[in-house]
Amino acid sequence: MLQRIRGTQDFTDLTLFNFLSAVARAHLTHYGFNEVMTPILEPTDLFRRSLGLNTDVVTKEMFTVKAGENEEAICLRPEATASIMRAFFNNGIQERPWRVFSLGPIFRHERPQKGRYRQFHQLSIEMIGAGTIMQDAEFIAMLDTFISENLRLDSYALLLNFLGTAEDRENYKRALYAFLEKQDNLPRAIQERKETNLLRIFDLKDEECKKALEHAPVLTDSLCAESRAEWDNLRSLLDQLSISYVHDPRLVRGLDYYNKTVFEFSSLDLGAQNAFCGGGRYDHLSIALGEKEPVPSMGAAFGVERLLMLLEARKDKLALPQKPPLIVLIPLAPEQQLLALIAAQELRAVGICCEALLEGASVKSMMRRANKLGAQYTILMGEDEQKGNYITLKDMVSGTEEKVKQGDMVEQVKARVS
Ligand code: HAM
């Protein structure tokens, strides 16, 4: 048999996935966000311009798709923020802030491992045209409430950093470069990124690189007075909203469009790939996409598979939807199959969930199957029942059986299951 593509997954039970999407939709609607859907196929240029030419996603992880001759290069989207910003302009949206969310598949050609896939799902939440630090605080608080109250997760941390303005980052890069120049025996990966995309040295997670950067200067020390005031304000607002966070001066995020506030929610329960949500401010993304004006914006994306891993371990704490009671109809011989089929239709018509066993199996194996399906009641229909115009209703929990007139079947079953 052919196997699925490496780094992809089959979902054969969607209970938890559907639960998560329903809770997310309800929560976000409550906060005034509307759901949108953008294409999976996008121009490759959209991400080259927005994420940055030197980022891992653009240099190594894009799934490009064969386009027609003379057509622009296209790809499977590696994230949704640039698509949503594109949609904002393409559709002439006037509303500001435009509060939207989108849930769907994302594609990155990464090395597959636990929690890291080549096709995965993101819940992207964006606030396009929202420029204040107060809005950042509200947004982060909204995410935190979703995680702690709606999903009832408790062992996670919010990592926070402030990237300031482009000028702040230039100042910082100069300080960082000077620091690196003074170090002996820098790991090769750092040496390479030092020249191509300096801030990305902090995305290097191996121990040797981490150690080499232990005493590197931190970005928040290079902020200008205005940025520093915003950074102080953000932390003070989060304190006042009782949101716990950890300042992680190394958090630079792997995409180039961010400025000012950046954050990640992570959980040690996930192993190496521990970030289950990441986001921040992207005030200049509109410019990168060719607009004249900046449209200050804020957003984040949850990795759905990683959230599902966390939820799976805490399933018993969640109010997962209960399956409705099931009635299984068992025709004892082929002559009663049509009768069972009609009875099943009558029960379904009044909203009762039922299944008629029509494979012509033995009574013993049909009873076994009814048990396996978790039937609350079975309806037995044999020759005697057919002749006498009744059915035998069996309570699968107590094992008791009773005869019910065929004409009363619907009412009697309904009274028992509702
Ligand atoms: P990101 O940090 O690249 O940000 O991805 C967001 C989340 O998607 C990660 O925290 C992680 O949970 C999940 N994720 C990323 N790659 C994989 C993978 N290969 N397999 C499974 N899960 C993965 C963004 O994509 C930004 N667009 C977020 C954003 C929205 N920023 C502003 N608005």
Radius of gyration: 29 Å
The count of helical stretches stands at 15
How many domains is the backbone divided into? Answer: 2
What's the count of strands? Answer: 16
For the biggest β-sheet, the strand order reads 1-5-6-11-10-9-7-8
Please give the CATH architecture of the largest domain: 2-Layer Sandwich
Which class do the helix and strand fractions yield? alpha+beta
Give the class-level CATH name of the largest domain: Alpha Beta
Q: Report the helical percentage.
A: 25-40%
Cα shape: elongated
Bound compounds, each kind once, are: histidyl-adenosine monophosphate
- CATH homologous superfamily grouping of the largest domain: Bira Bifunctional Protein, Domain 2
Short description:
With 418 residues, this protein is of the alpha+beta class. The chain is 37% helix and 21% strand. The protein has two domains: 15-164 and 223-317, Bira Bifunctional Protein, Domain 2 (BirA Bifunctional Protein, domain 2), CATH 3.30.930; 326-411, 3-Layer(aba) Sandwich (Rossmann fold), CATH 3.40.50.800.
